[in-house]
Amino acid sequence: MTGHIHVVGGAVLDSLADPTSILVARRSAPEQYAGLWEFPGGKVEPGEAPQAALHRELREELGIEVRLGNELAAATAAGWPLNERATMRVWLAEICEGEPVPLEDHDELRWISLGDGDEALSLPWIPADFPIVRALLDSLTGKRQASSGTSGSLQSGR
Ligand SMILES: Nc1nc2c([nH]c(=O)n2[C@H]2C[C@H](O)[C@@H](COP(=O)(O)OP(=O)(O)OP(=O)(O)O)O2)c(=O)[nH]1
User: Fold this and answer.
1) What's the complex ipTM?
2) Which terminal CB of the chain, N or C, has fewer other CB atoms within 10 Å?
């Protein structure tokens, strides 16, 4: 996909084994996204593996080292559509080193309880993220039925 923008995002959980909350980040720039919540992450650089890009972005933006878990399965191999030019792949993660702080691109970080999905969904996310947040919540809370396809399920390492 020439010219396509590949974005990676981290669904950073308090625990991969027994998740009860997720770390979300509020963007401070650009103006179009300022004040909106997102999965911390960013663009994959040329020649970079997506998982390596995610480790790099979380280190740069939040000052944390993470252990990656399963990828949140998306409709296409390129991931979740963000707009006509960009898609995002999302991995579960847990912090293995460091305390998250908004070092760049964000002005607030917040741990959101997974127990009541409304808490996460009531935040003003980047609009393209809502289907991803819903699928993630469904996966983590086991609400989605196996018959409903790949969306929202978790798949191990690619
Ligand atoms: N990180 C992230 N980006 C998202 C999400 N949802 C969404 O539409 N995007 C968009 C916003 C941006 O257009 C693009 C990611 O770009 P970015 O600005 O975070 O990338 P980057 O850190 O590599 O920054 P830069 O080098 O372009 O300055 O994807 C999300 O949940 N997380």
Assistant:
1) 0.96
2) N
Confidence of residue 2 (pLDDT cuts 50, 70, 90): low
- From the CA of 77, how far away is ligand 1's center (Å)? 18
What pTM did the predictor assign?
0.90
**Ligand 1 centre distance from Cα of residue 132 (Å):** 15
Compute the half-sphere exposure of residue 34: CA atoms within 13 Å on the CB side of its CA: 5
User: Residue 1 burial by CB count (10 A; 0-12/13-18/19+): exposed, middle or buried?
Assistant: exposed
State the sign of the Cα–Cα–Cα–Cα dihedral 90, 54, 62, 95: positive
Closest CA to 140 of 154, 157, 122: 154
Examine the pLDDT at 128 and tell me if it is beyond 70. Answer: yes
Query: pLDDT-based confidence at 141, cuts 50/70/90?
Result: confident
Judging by DSSP bridges, how do beta strands 86-97 and 80-83 pair with one another?
A: antiparallel
Residue located nearest, by CA, to atom 29 of ligand 1: 7
